[in-house]
Amino acid sequence: MYGYEQKHRFIELRAAGHSYASISATLGIGKGTCIDWNKELEAEIQKTKADQLQELQTAFGMAKEARIKRLGASLSKIDEALEKVDLTTADPIKLLEIKLKYAEALKDEYVAPQPPATELNTSEDCQKALAKLLARVQSGELTEQQAAKELAIIAKIHDTFVTARLKDQLEALNAMLPN
Predict the structure, then answer these.
(1) Domains of the chain: which residue ranges?
(2) 0.85 surpassed by pTM
(3) Euclidean distance between the first and final Cα of the chain, in Å?
(4) Is-contact 33 39, C-beta < 8 A?
(5) DSSP string spanning 55-69?
(6) What DSSP designation does 18 have?
(7) How confident is the model at residue 9, as a pLDDT?
(8) CA–CA dist 73, 93 (Å, integer)
(9) Is 142 exposed, middle or buried (0-12, 13-18, 19+ CB in 10 A)?
(10) What span, in angstroms and rounded, lies between the C-alpha atoms of 135 and 114?
(11) Is 89 helix (H, G, I), strand (E, B) or coil?
(12) pLDDT tens for the chain, residues 1 to 179
């Protein structure tokens, strides 16, 4: 029987993109076992792949907000260099071309805050929208400032539902009281 360590190593190897033949040789198991384990452990393999990708993005600063900050910092350095350059000795065309490329790349990274994609008709809808917002922030799709704007909108809508519910409950209690 195979142990937990072998299955865990199988997950790591499959997530890294190794073939069944390679894993079979490395772990000393048959290809049929590899196929069976792949079916059995598919969710864990996908999660490990996602975790590895997230680690790479974090390690190399590839989150959207990090890219925007890096592009902005580079653009600022180019602006400083352009201000210092004696245009009679430097090739300003090259510097301007670089500046335009960085400005375009920075523009491409911008994601405008969007109202929730689904209609918010209930308090539960607001909770779902908050979960989606959190996922978008964690994936780097939104900056903290953009997330704060969307959060404020969702929170105000949710507060409206809570206030309406409390008002209804208060009216029901008043109706139960003797006149």
Answers:
(1) 4-59, 64-109, 123-176
(2) no
(3) 77
(4) no
(5) HHHHHTT-SHHHHHH
(6) -
(7) 92
(8) 21
(9) buried
(10) 14
(11) coil
(12) 678 889 899 899 998 889 989 999 999 999 999 899 999 999 998 888 888 877 776 666 566 677 778 888 888 888 888 778 676 666 878 878 888 887 887 777 766 655 555 577 777 888 888 888 888 877 777 777 888 888 888 888 888 878 888 887 888 888 888 76
Total residues found in the chain within this entry:
179
For residue 103, what are its two tokens?
């400005």
Residues 6+ apart with CB under 8 A from 35: 20
Could you tell me the two tokens for 1?
Answer: 């029987």
**Which residue carries 């195979």 as its tokens?**
2
Report CA-CA distances (Å) from 160 to 62, 83, 168: 38, 52, 12
